[in-house]
## 1
Amino acid sequence: MAPKRGRPRQFDRDVALHTAVMLFWERGYEATSIDDLSAAMGIGIPSLYAAFGSKRKLFDEVVAEYTRLYRSFMTTAIAEEPTLTDGVRRLLHEAAEACTRPGLPRGCLVISAATNTTSPEVEEGLRKLRTDGVDVLEGLIRQAIDAGELPADTDARALAHYVCATLQGIAQQARDGAERGTLESIAALAMHAWPTTARRRGKAPTRARPA
């Protein structure tokens, strides 16, 4: 006897997920209820749980989808530029653009969703995303020091924290209503603190690109 087939879902899961991204991005984790999600996604609560498991599991998918769609510029900006200095400059300017895109919530979901949650698991997951970013950037800075692009006495850890703090500040300022031009000015000012000794001696060496 053939097994019974489950009732097919009457909604587009990808569309529903993207709707959840927008809602969590706008309101944060704590302020977004299951009822809010059900209404915005256009599906009943039982169907929502059947498709995504729980609010917590849905949020994990939301963060992954948000990262894929709206945070990919962070790795692309650095990877595509010939030097880390150019990559970080581009990263900060593109953050100003990304946080103020017309038709999208202001700021960054990873930053805003962490400010109003009482869930230790959610808070820890978002913190790990941010600290991982610091670790990756610190590694790139150390490579740039070894390659002679940055001065040998550069504090790689502090510089990585500085860049990430600037990114978080841009996101929060955007959330508070700052316009793109203002945020781009912040990005430009932030680069004045970037070590430039190697550049004053001549053109900074380019980074090796993966084969």
## 2
Amino acid sequence: MGIFSGFEKLGLGNIEGEALFEDPRKKETVVKKEEPKKKLQLVNEEDYLFDKKYKCPVCDSDFEARTVRTGKVKIKNVDIDLRPDYEELDQNKYDVIACPACGYAALGRYFPNLTKYQIDDIRVKICMNYKHEPCKDPVYTYEYAKRLYQLCLANAVVKKAKNSEKAYICLKSAWVIRGETQRLDPNDDDYETRKAENDAQEKELLVNALNGFAMARQTEEFPIAGMDATTLDYLMAALAVETGQRDMASKMIGEILTSRVANSRIKDKARVLKEMLMEKE
């Protein structure tokens, strides 16, 4: 199942043939996934949400989107690829802002920033074909959140977003799928099937995230996706570990550990990656 599969449900089947990254140098990666964590129970998720108002920069419509209340959720763990794992809910589900009127969608940091040419392309390739599917639940289900991320990625491809933005969408999409996998019930009859499907989807997204960030590192100026050079290098090293790119991981970890600008926190995290590499030998 590819990244673009399912776009036809949103009326965007024409996007499926598009290339994800504008890649000046092709790279291949192989992914190795982390072991899934135990199923987590979400309690009163709705209590941590509110409807935030937005104005769409494409169609000028006013709309509301479910948003997590600032400071209300606590991070209990951070995965090696910087995915925050929250105590009360999976905040990553709510990071895409999507206009229900025209289908424009983006991650919060990118939502208002569009050029005239990008707006024109979105109107032609997204808005004219978009079929809105409203969320029928008081909270976002994982299925709904994944559709939002697909729509977000479709918009990024159409507007010819920077490789870093598309890589960031792929990374956060993988995080959402990982969150869903953690919450699957091992006692369900379809557990193994659903887990295998999620694992395959997360694998593809992590590969694309690493490739996209590698291209962005070569061609874009910092900050990249809100990250400075040291943070991005660490993230790429972590993704390289996760995806089995030992040479790349080893090189980047070494550079972080010998860097004069990397802080002690990043160096400590890099040492954890180094230990993981050694354990896999």
## 3
Amino acid sequence: MGEGVDTRIGPPSFGTERETLRAFLDYQRATLAMKCEGLDDEQLRRRSMPPSALTLLGLVRHMAEVERTWFRRVFEDPGAPMVWAKDGEVDFQAAYDASASTRAEAFPVWEAEVAASRRIEAAAASLDVSGHQPRWEEDVSLRMVMVHVLLEYGRHNGHADFLREGVDGTVGA
């Protein structure tokens, strides 16, 4: 971002479906981290446009909950408690409220959830492995989960673009 070096690894032009999904998902994860790079806690907590509580730190917390909800809870432990959101909270508003949060609180949780998601995906025999999404009350494939989480990152990284620009004027990638 800005004058920094973009260290994200772009998805392959050719690859298997799984390699492509994995690479796009990791690229989006790296994009969120990049949007937060070099900012202090106050900047990470800066609201987009009051009354909205949306902040970069809130997005990191939200995506930790998304990773947990769609990988850990669907494929490993449906009873794993949410970190900030209350069970059953579809919109994860508790995660977005980062008014008292810090980088030191949010980023290790997000990074741990990303690591768990990567581990779960790597251990799966195929994209057709199924898990149960209790909120939807139906079974879902790993393929569907990867696409869903990829779309979540894409949508929220768009928000992160605007948030970062509002913090220090940095735009791009």
